[in-house]
Specification:
Helix content is about 15%, strand content about 40%. The protein is an alpha+beta fold. The chain has one domain: Thiol Ester Dehydrase, Chain A (Roll).
């Protein structure tokens, strides 16, 4: 498990754009499981469908990207490398995420190279897939 302090040591984002609250499982070079608690107190709900708050799809993708970055940082030798999000391919959204949900993120390594990696991504709420796709990263 990894708490918020450890997470902040691996990703540059901070509140309100830090999208990972806790890492619950991680096997270097293979997978990571993490979550984000979705709270009505988050700033983006003031302007994103305020009458019927929905967690933005772009932030679901960002949560998946941050989890993948943590996995990549834990899987490469140079932990000081800056990670650059290169592309997301075929990310599809299936269900809405609303305040009160716990967004689980699962990332599996497809390919890992010295300078980056390709990852399968999946976001779930109550064991229902809300989004999935593939992301590619490169390190510098």
């Amino acid at each position: 498990m990894m708490n918020i302090t450890e997470i902040e040591s691996l990703v540059p984002q901070r509140f309100p754009f830090l999208m990972i609250d806790r890492v619950v499982d991680l096997k270097e070079k293979e997978f990571i499981k993490a979550y984000k608690n979705i709270s009505i107190n988050e700033e983006y709900f003031k302007g994103h469908f305020p009458a019927s708050p929905v967690f933005p799809g772009a932030l679901i993708a960002e949560a998946m990207a941050q989890a993948a970055c943590i996995l990549l940082k834990k899987s490469i030798v140079d932990l000081t490398a800056t990670l650059f999000y290169v592309t997301n391919m075929k990310i599809r959204f299936f269900k809405t995420v609303v305040p009160g949900d716990k967004l689980f993120i699962k990332i599996n390594t497809v390919k890992l190279a010295r300078i980056g990696g390709v990852f399968e991504t999946e976001a779930l709420v109550d064991d229902n897939v809300v989004a999935k796709g593939e992301m590619t990263f490169a390190c510098k």
